[in-house]
């Protein structure tokens, strides 16, 4: 446990989030999983890993049904071996990992990725014990795959979620927590990523060509991320994490250029699900704001330059797809920085500064187009989701050892 370990990430498969290749089970089934600090479950779709030939597989009586801001899935939980290969061809291996096998997923589930690797805490890794269902069917859950799940897979996502809630609930140990508990690595990890949307510098690029583009690559660094001094410069600022439901933070305000900062609204009710008015979420390809705060940000951008009005018109609403404008209509030198002010741990305030090329992604979602990275989610509470555009300017360390809930360290990225 004496050095930082780095893993190659690609922003190609998941429509604007980074994936890591893992190997599962005795047959080393390959899966490209979305790295998501906004969830805790390791889930892979059944087309990529069904467990049938896995000699390491241990069946469990658990099932999971997880929903996200967009998308969701359900399926049985098994245990098996998971390994990932470092940039220097070292393998990080963990046995008896809880893995969910997605039998059914929402149309906005994993895009072209094969599943999700959640990096948050156990409170988001909720499962239900279906022992009573197996007993009623006079079957044992230890026989996998089970006919019980063939019957249950006919449920819609809402039906299955409602069905399993009647059974005993447990919280399963997430992958990264198990990795740290094993003593293989220190309880911290870091992201070094280039952007949020997939970069299309030329028309008609193949998947392989997109992967070879440096701007579509990144790194996950585990163990001792501060050792990677080649990835950052200067000192770290420390953002206070207020709860470990997610990586919960407090967003004070958002400021467009030199305009007066706009206060971020508080949650109307502190509840078991949301906890605070902000989260750091590597599984989000944009920055989601409450509708009224988004409108204020757009208003300040237009006040900065009235010519921005037409370009920003598509972004007052969000339909679940990446809207874009012609790239040649943008002069990024005319756009101001946007500052996100957050509660600090060792200082009152930490400011994230997004340059125009962070919140406008060039050559996205296609060559010659550009997409604005601030959105608002319908039916979401007063919570800011700080997705990948907030990561891109910085080397971001999630140090889970710091204080009760951990802390987020940021330094200027090289």
From TrEMBL:
<feature type="domain" description="Peptidase A1">
    <location>
        <begin position="18"/>
        <end position="408"/>
    </location>
</feature>
<dbReference type="InterPro" id="IPR001461">
    <property type="entry name" value="Aspartic_peptidase_A1"/>
</dbReference>
<dbReference type="GO" id="GO:0004190">
    <property type="term" value="F:aspartic-type endopeptidase activity"/>
</dbReference>
<dbReference type="GO" id="GO:0006508">
    <property type="term" value="P:proteolysis"/>
</dbReference>
<dbReference type="InterPro" id="IPR033121">
    <property type="entry name" value="PEPTIDASE_A1"/>
</dbReference>
<protein>
    <submittedName>
        <fullName>Pepsin-like aspartic protease</fullName>
    </submittedName>
</protein>
<comment type="similarity">
    <text>Belongs to the peptidase A1 family.</text>
</comment>
<dbReference type="InterPro" id="IPR034164">
    <property type="entry name" value="Pepsin-like_dom"/>
</dbReference>
<dbReference type="Pfam" id="PF00026">
    <property type="entry name" value="Asp"/>
</dbReference>
<dbReference type="InterPro" id="IPR001969">
    <property type="entry name" value="Aspartic_peptidase_AS"/>
</dbReference>
<dbReference type="InterPro" id="IPR021109">
    <property type="entry name" value="Peptidase_aspartic_dom_sf"/>
</dbReference>
């Amino acid at each position: 446990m004496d050095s930082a370990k780095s893993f190659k990430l690609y922003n190609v498969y998941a429509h604007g989030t980074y994936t890591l290749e893992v190997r599962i089970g005795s047959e080393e089934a390959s899966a490209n999983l979305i790295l998501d600090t906004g969830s805790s479950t390791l889930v892979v779709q059944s087309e990529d890993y069904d467990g049938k030939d896995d000699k390491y597989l241990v069946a469990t009586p658990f099932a999971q049904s997880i929903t996200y801001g967009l998308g969701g899935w359900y399926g049985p939980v098994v245990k098996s071996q998971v390994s990932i290969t470092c940039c220097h061809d070292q393998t990080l291996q963990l046995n008896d990992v809880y893995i969910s096998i997605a039998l059914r997923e929402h149309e906005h589930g994993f895009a072209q990725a094969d599943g999700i690797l959640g990096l948050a805490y156990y409170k988001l890794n909720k499962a239900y014990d279906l022992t009573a269902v197996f007993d009623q069917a006079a079957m044992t859950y230890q026989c996998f795959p089970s006919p019980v799940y063939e019957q249950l897979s006919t449920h819609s996502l809402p039906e299955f979620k409602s069905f399993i809630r009647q059974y005993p609930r447990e919280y399963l140990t997430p992958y990264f927590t198990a990795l740290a508990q094993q003593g293989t690595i220190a309880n911290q990890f870091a992201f070094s990523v280039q952007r949020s949307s997939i970069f299309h510098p030329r028309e008609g690029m193949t998947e392989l060509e997109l992967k070879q583009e440096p701007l579509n690559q990144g790194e996950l660094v585990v163990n001792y991320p501060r050792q990677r001094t080649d990835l950052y410069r200067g000192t770290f600022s420390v953002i206070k994490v207020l709860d470990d439901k997610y990586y919960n933070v407090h967003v004070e305000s958002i400021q467009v250029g030199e305009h007066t900062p706009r206060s971020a609204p508080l949650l109307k009710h502190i509840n078991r699900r949301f906890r605070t008015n902000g989260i750091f979420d590597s599984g989000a390809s944009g920055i989601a704001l409450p509708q009224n705060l988004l409108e204020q940000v757009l208003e300040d951008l237009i006040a900065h330059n009235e010519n921005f009005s037409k370009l920003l018109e598509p972004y007052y609403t969000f339909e679940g797809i990446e809207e874009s404008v012609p790239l040649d209509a943008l002069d990024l030198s005319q756009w101001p920085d946007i500052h996100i002010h957050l509660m600090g741990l060792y200082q009152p305030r930490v400011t994230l500064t997004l340059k125009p090329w962070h919140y406008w992604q060039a050559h996205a979602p296609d060559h010659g187009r550009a997409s604005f990275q601030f959105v608002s989610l319908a039916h979401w509470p007063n919570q800011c989701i700080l997705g990948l555009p907030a990561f891109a300017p910085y080397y971001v360390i999630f140090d889970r050892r710091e204080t009760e809930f951990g802390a987020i360290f940021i330094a200027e990225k090289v």
